[in-house]
TrEMBL record:
<keyword id="KW-0732">Signal</keyword>
<protein>
    <submittedName>
        <fullName>ABC transporter arginine-binding protein</fullName>
    </submittedName>
</protein>
<dbReference type="Pfam" id="PF00497">
    <property type="entry name" value="SBP_bac_3"/>
</dbReference>
<dbReference type="InterPro" id="IPR001638">
    <property type="entry name" value="Solute-binding_3/MltF_N"/>
</dbReference>
<comment type="similarity">
    <text>Belongs to the bacterial solute-binding protein 3 family.</text>
</comment>
<feature type="domain" description="Solute-binding protein family 3/N-terminal">
    <location>
        <begin position="3"/>
        <end position="82"/>
    </location>
</feature>
Amino acid sequence: MDLQNGRIDIVLSDTALLADIMKKEPNIEFIGEKVINEKYFGRGVGIALNKSNKALQERLNQGLKAIKEKGEYQKIYDKWMKK
């Protein structure tokens, strides 16, 4: 898998597919919150990244925290998820 081999940094996919990949690849993990509005994503979308890439994980977590603190996350959620 390209994520495991370092050719890509992030995978955005449905939760079921990512969960299956994680069973086979112990160095891959979910980060952030699960998107659960079935209207848009079925069972959800997650972000997977190589566990060894702590810098990327930290940057993603910081970005999510920043948009939540500014209220942007809720605006995005309300615009795209509450329809």
